[in-house]
Design goal:
It is a single chain. The chain is an alpha+beta fold. It has one helix and ten strands. Strands 3, 5, 6, 7, 9 and 10 form a six-stranded mixed β-sheet that branches. A four-stranded mixed β-sheet has the order 2-1-4-8, with no helix packed on it. The chain is elongated. The structure holds copper (II) ion.
């Protein structure tokens, strides 16, 4: 067999194996990170912060909270709301929720497992929006 071909074949094989290892390492790393984020707050219950929506207004447009606190958003209005995390049309997930429909009297609850400032809004009426900041 041609020596050049053999070198090329070994190089290609090596690169494929290296690529696979990199993908596996990334997946394992993400899994560990995800686990540690939720594990931080496992069996830890901080303060509960509540935001109510009444007559198209939020009771709080900004909430300051600590890691592992809880946030409860309640819709008191007759209209159904679709509470979403992130900017309108660019929803993101927080504690496993990206959007949730709330009829009158219904709530959504998240545990504040990630530090930073996060937006939320009513996807059906985006003038209803606020944010929360989570610190360590
Ligand atoms: Cu939206």
């Amino acid at each position: 067999m041609n020596k050049g071909f053999r070198i090329a074949a070994w190089t290609l094989g090596g690169l494929i194996i290296l690529g696979c290892l990199l993908v596996v390492a990334t997946l394992v790393n993400q899994k560990i990170l995800n686990n540690s984020q939720s594990d931080i707050c496992k069996n830890v219950y901080g303060t509960t912060h509540t935001v109510a929506i009444t007559n198209d207004k939020l009771s709080e447009t900004h909430v300051n909270a600590k890691l592992c606190d809880r946030l409860i958003i309640t819709n008191n209005d007759r209209k159904t709301r679709e509470i979403a995390f992130g900017a309108h049309e660019r929803h993101t997930e927080y504690d496993g929720i990206s959007e949730k429909f709330l009829n009158q009297g219904q709530s959504l609850q998240v545990q504040l497992i990630n530090v930073g400032t996060y937006l939320f809004h009513d996807h059906l009426e985006d003038s209803v929006h606020g944010d929360f900041t989570v610190t360590n």
